[in-house]
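During the no-cost extension, the postdoctoral fellow (Dr. R.K.) reprocessed legacy sequence entries with the updated structure-token encoder. One reprocessed record is reproduced below for audit purposes.
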Amino acid sequence: MSNGRVPGGARFATFLEMVPDAIVGVDAEGVIAFVNPEAARLFGYSCEELVNKPIDPLLSPSFRASVLRQGRFSVRDPDRGSRVAPTHLIAHRKDGSTFPSELLMTSTRMAGRLIVVAALRDISARERENASFRGVLEAADDASIAVDRGGLIALVNEEAEELFGYTSSELIDQPLEVLVPQPRPRPSVQKGSRQIHGKGTVQTGPGAPLEGRRKDGSEFPVEISLSAIETDEGPLVSAAIRDASDRVETRREQGRAEVQRERDVLESRLHQSHRLESLGQLAGGVAHDFNNLLAAILNYVGFVSEEVSAELETRPVDARARLTAVLSDVAQIAAAADRAAGLTHQLLAFARREVRNLEVLDINDVVAEVESLLRRTIGEHVELITRGPRALKAVRADRGQIEQILLNLAVNARDAMPNGGILTVATGNVTVDKEFAATHPLVEAGSYVRLRVTDTGAGMDTETLERAFEPFFSTKPKDKGTGLGLATVYGIVSQTAGVVELSSEVGVGTSVTILLPSVTTAVTDTKPDRPRRISRHTAGETVLVVEDEELVLDVASRILTSNGYHVLRARSGAEALNAIAGHGDRVDLLLTDVVMPGATGKEVAETVSEECPGIRVLFMSGYPESVIASQGVIAQGIRLLSKPFKAPDLLAHVRASLDA
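Re-encoded structure tokens follow.
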């Protein structure tokens, strides 16, 4: 260590030899009291050459003036000790070369003397990396600040100096809270859901409204975007800061800021609910036009297929190849349209806008009915266990939707257990208290039926769990799923005034818990009679078709005409009245769209019924339930044909309406 006695004794000397950083002890006069071997190596001296020598030859001449005498830490109250932020100085080696150094200093008393202890590091490598990073910051249009892994400012560009009123030297080694004092997303790349492995950059957060503070103490709204780069000295986080004072805050922005500040469970659930509701409104808005197009595509494909098939029968066997290929292409178009129709129904189910046939159900009965289907779906390598109490309370729901929930969850469970496992479907009666209801905005306190589906599969991590209900989000390969399975479950449960929760652990499995409100009504079959499927009817009844979409009007008319019905066509309520003029009682059925420009389907039905007493009415619509309900259609005894429909669906509903 040195030839002289080291202040602090032998133990302290041993400690200094073990410390990997360079350690230098300096008294109040700037004379070196002790050094450790690493310090001697760093400066190119021996320990004996440094002890009792002035510190000035090693560090910048300003060291004593700026540190020891200007009070960057106290020398007047050494008994308390003190420590300051890192200091950056140019250090000088024995051979005359220099290097940038970082110093951490503290003051204490040793053997009755005031000693300033400085830990030094050569930061040449860091400076080289910072230089390249500084170029990125200087090229940025916004104020940009680089923060090290300790949360201290490492680099500042000119725009940041101008925005906050500080110089670069005033900000270096200061915490970012000096500029952004309010709570903020911590710029760390070592914790959280997104980590950095190796060198590179990653965007860690979108612009977020916060408050910035200038040197003069004034505050102003700012937006901060964080990105990170991994260096040999550890990660540096770049904060791009933009003055948002000139922006007029809207209620929506204030709401987002409130959600950002309030991290409690209730706010999180409301945020998710609102986001999914917006997606549902979008789905409902396009459903009508999209379903009209699908109805036209599906039925025109059917027309073409019938004509080509008929033509094939007239051709010799050796002359059928070309038409057979055409028929195969037509079949592919039909299959694609069917898949599109299925996706539309799934999306509407997620959006809580699907038309439902409500009835009072015993969930145990539904589970028993689909149990064999579930077993075929999950395969022999997965064991299915079902259990539930005999005295299970009833719920009011759509039987088909409950079956869809069970099937979707079974498919997910199967995919999560490729090597086998156990799938458990359990039911039970539960009571939701006010405390639970307070943290679930869509649930009221009361009696519920619980449906819980649990698997022993791979499980989900936190990031996946948080996005599991989002439509089109999937961890499966693109050809293995649409990302609408859990989204559909969420929509169905929410539409039934229930709540669904996920719990999962990687390597353990996933549990989906659904609560549906119970009812005291006895279980009854309230489903309307299913339309009878017929291949062709030739009774000759007259059907008035009212549809504002020309494609759908043509399709419906063509199907009905080819199956023996006499068809009157109209694109509006006024045209409908003109069409029935002179026909009177000979009009047997009104087939009308629900939502049309001008008069609604209900208004058309009321007007036509006045002219033709006793006429039967069949509504058709691709609109979701809430829109149809607003038009006054959903009511007891109302018959509704959902779009997109195929010829058998239309014919069956027409026949059932006429025979009712």
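The chain is about 40% helix and 25% strand. Confidence is low (pLDDT under 50) at residues 70-83, 184-208, 526-537. The remaining legacy entries will be reprocessed before the final report is submitted.
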